[in-house]
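As a point of orientation, let us examine one representative protein, giving the amino acid sequence and backbone structure tokens.
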Amino acid sequence: MTLPTRALGRSGITAGAIGLGCMSFSPIYGGYDGTGADAVIGRALDLGVTLLDTADVYGPHTSEEAVGKAIAGRRDEVVLATKFGIVVDPDSPTGRGIDGTPSYARSSVEGSLQRLGVEHIDLYYLHRPSAVTPIEETVGALGELVAEGKIGHIGLSEASEDTIRRAAATHPIAALQTEYSLWSRDIEGPILDACRELGIGIVPYSPLGRGFLTGQITTPDDLPANDFRRGNPRFAEAEMAANQALVELVTNVADGYGATPGQVALAWILAQGDDLIPIPGTKRVPYLEDNAGAASVQLTPADLELLDHAADAVAAPRYEPALGWINRDTPTA
């Protein structure tokens, strides 16, 4: 099996229809012992899973280092994406802040290039827009890095419609990375419409609902004690119980195709447009192969409609709203 390819909007980036999120090669999902990345990424490339997505904050640095080691000798097969901008901030409720200053963009890309062991990053994202630095300043600095050949394309993550439009007026934007799945659909409407108007591809992260839509997580006890999902609103016990109805529906649909629930959840994403490349994450080869198999699942119009309506009553937001962590605005210059 080799995956079909897709183009990310009008950016010129072409990659396998399903990518690989590499946050799992860090401690955030309950631990990472430093092994497995070579096997997972090697198998991914063999299958045509060519868009590899990481970030400097994953670990920090652990994921980029693992990806760099795994792609050594196969760099020309990879569409390599990483992100910058999230920093430690003890005064923030999340312990994280955002630095979108031009100087930080420049220093960050140098660090990522070194850890990844490459001279060029194909797609470089601002991990979250800054509430302090105007997007024009950040994107202007990234445009200089494009001109210098250190990055090929600029991406945004969790940006508002206004931020996207202002960024694109400063320099072409290749992709918007955002959470998008059967239970996270807030980009539908102005944000998604703006991206398509501007030729910006969509890279859905957590397309399996952080694993929930696979049907393998039914209570908080199914998660490791140090897994960050335990603090996520949708993974509280009552909310998880309420959201099982969606998982049951996905499972029932999957049974009709001889597929897994995760494959149906990914197939739904793929059916939302040929300008999307989802990046489910895993650190296990069997799960990677299962995810790649989703490209062969063609959902009927009736099943797509059934899934669309079933996702309307998801319990709890994807982040605590007070954190302001999604679809972010930046100040004007």
